[in-house]
């Protein structure tokens, strides 16, 4: 298919914040994503106590699931409201701390310590700030970044991964001439060239 129609699309930070403010969050799955249940064993691969990254996390309930299984969760999200809603909706106490390396950013951390959600742009992160991860749950993330930023996004994700890590990616398949996105259509050939 031709993805030309979406190549030049730009969704600004303000537009995302507005979606959260207006409750325009049809992407949020109250019950969690069935594909994570289905492929959980692929993500974990028999391992326990993993560090798992949620890029562009929103208030994904899967963060709570995996934390309850004993994993450490790190997420990043530009909407502070999304992160506050996450902790409130799960009745999780948390504290806020500045992130010295990133001016204006903060991290919201569950009091129990196993969920750390960074409120900043993903492009502000690096492995020296958040470390590296054993697993990644990418749902509504690669498909939500602006098409012009995909290479930058994928390179960052690769730098954030440990040697033996697993990356679960959810994409959507449709005719990009019929819907402007997000979620954007990312053809499989492009995924191969982005991630190798
Ligand atoms: N992964 C979540 C949310 C998907 S929607 C889920 O499955 O429900 C995409 C999210 O990315 C939105 O909440 C938006 O606010 C956030 N976002 C968009 N651009 C971002 C960026 N550059 N850095 C961090 N978060 C971003």
UniProtKB/TrEMBL annotation:
<feature type="binding site">
    <location>
        <position position="139"/>
    </location>
    <ligand>
        <name>S-adenosyl-L-methionine</name>
    </ligand>
</feature>
<dbReference type="GO" id="GO:0005737">
    <property type="term" value="C:cytoplasm"/>
</dbReference>
<feature type="binding site">
    <location>
        <position position="56"/>
    </location>
    <ligand>
        <name>S-adenosyl-L-methionine</name>
    </ligand>
</feature>
<dbReference type="InterPro" id="IPR025835">
    <property type="entry name" value="Thiopurine_S-MeTrfase"/>
</dbReference>
<dbReference type="InterPro" id="IPR029063">
    <property type="entry name" value="SAM-dependent_MTases_sf"/>
</dbReference>
<feature type="binding site">
    <location>
        <begin position="121"/>
        <end position="122"/>
    </location>
    <ligand>
        <name>S-adenosyl-L-methionine</name>
    </ligand>
</feature>
<protein>
    <recommendedName>
        <fullName>thiopurine S-methyltransferase</fullName>
        <ecNumber>2.1.1.67</ecNumber>
    </recommendedName>
</protein>
<keyword id="KW-0489">Methyltransferase</keyword>
<dbReference type="GO" id="GO:0008119">
    <property type="term" value="F:thiopurine S-methyltransferase activity"/>
</dbReference>
<keyword id="KW-0949">S-adenosyl-L-methionine</keyword>
<dbReference type="GO" id="GO:0032259">
    <property type="term" value="P:methylation"/>
</dbReference>
<feature type="binding site">
    <location>
        <position position="77"/>
    </location>
    <ligand>
        <name>S-adenosyl-L-methionine</name>
    </ligand>
</feature>
<dbReference type="InterPro" id="IPR008854">
    <property type="entry name" value="TPMT"/>
</dbReference>
<dbReference type="Pfam" id="PF05724">
    <property type="entry name" value="TPMT"/>
</dbReference>
<feature type="binding site">
    <location>
        <begin position="16"/>
        <end position="27"/>
    </location>
    <ligand>
        <name>S-adenosyl-L-methionine</name>
    </ligand>
</feature>
<keyword id="KW-0808">Transferase</keyword>
<comment type="similarity">
    <text>Belongs to the class I-like SAM-binding methyltransferase superfamily. TPMT family.</text>
</comment>
<keyword id="KW-0963">Cytoplasm</keyword>
């Amino acid at each position: 298919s031709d993805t030309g129609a979406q190549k030049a699309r730009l969704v600004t930070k303000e537009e995302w914040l507005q979606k959260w403010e207006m409750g325009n969050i049809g992407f949020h799955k109250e019950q969690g994503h069935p594909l994570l249940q289905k492929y959980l064993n692929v993500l974990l691969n028999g391992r326990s106590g993993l560090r798992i990254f949620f890029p562009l996390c929103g208030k994904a309930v899967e963060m709570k699931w995996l934390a309850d299984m004993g994993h450490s969760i790190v997420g990043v999200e530009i909407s502070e409201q999304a992160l506050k809603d996450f902790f409130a909706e799960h009745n999780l106490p948390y504290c806020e701390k500045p992130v010295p390396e990133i001016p204006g950013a903060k991290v919201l951390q569950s009091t129990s310590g196993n969920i750390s959600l960074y409120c900043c742009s993903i492009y502000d992160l690096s492995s020296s700030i958040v470390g590296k991860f054993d697993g990644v749950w990418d749902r509504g993330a690669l498909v939500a970044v602006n098409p012009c930023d995909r290479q930058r996004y994928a390179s960052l994700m690769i730098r954030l991964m440990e040697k033996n890590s697993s990356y679960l990616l959810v994409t959507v398949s449709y005719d990009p001439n019929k819907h402007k996105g997000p979620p954007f259509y990312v053809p499989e050939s492009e995924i191969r060239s982005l991630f190798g």
